[in-house]
Specification:
CATH topology: Nuclear Transport Factor 2, Chain: A
Strand content: 25-35%
Strand order of the largest sheet: 1-2-3-4-5
Helix content: 40-55%
Mean pLDDT: 88
CATH class: Alpha Beta
CATH architecture: Roll
Shape: globular
Number of strands: 5
Low-confidence stretches: none
Largest sheet: 5 strands, antiparallel
Distance between the termini: 44 Å
Length: 113
């Protein structure tokens, strides 16, 4: 059997695709997080915000890339309209993204940012 190399999508690309597919559901969650105002949210606070959105919205997001992002988010830094997320998808691996709640833009961040 011949093996084909496939490209691994970055976390930013996966979140961007999920944003396009489930825009309203993700906006509902991001708006809740943004409404907390400027500050830092820990993992348990982010999970609490996810659990506070309507059940049908949670179910829609539960199986996708955005649920993976939420599970691996260690903290969120909120500076409206931006939410920066520090993700640890596996031990020793950190990724950083930021989302603009109003424009629905996802950007990767470098550690220095």
């Amino acid at each position: 059997a011949e093996r084909a190399l496939t490209r691994v999508h970055s976390i930013r690309e996966r979140v961007d695709e999920t944003l396009k597919a489930h825009r309203n559901e993700i906006v509902a969650l991001l708006t809740r997080i943004e409404s907390k105002g400027k500050g830092i949210l820990q993992h348990h606070q982010i999970v609490a915000e996810f659990e506070a959105i309507p059940e049908d919205t949670r179910k829609t997001l539960a199986g996708g890339a955005f649920a993976e992002v939420l599970r691996s988010t260690q903290e969120a830094i909120v500076v409206p309209p931006w939410i920066a997320l520090a993700l640890r998808p596996r031990p020793g691996v950190w990724e950083y993204i930021r989302l603009n709640v109003q424009a629905l833009v996802v950007e990767e961040l470098r550690v220095a940012e």
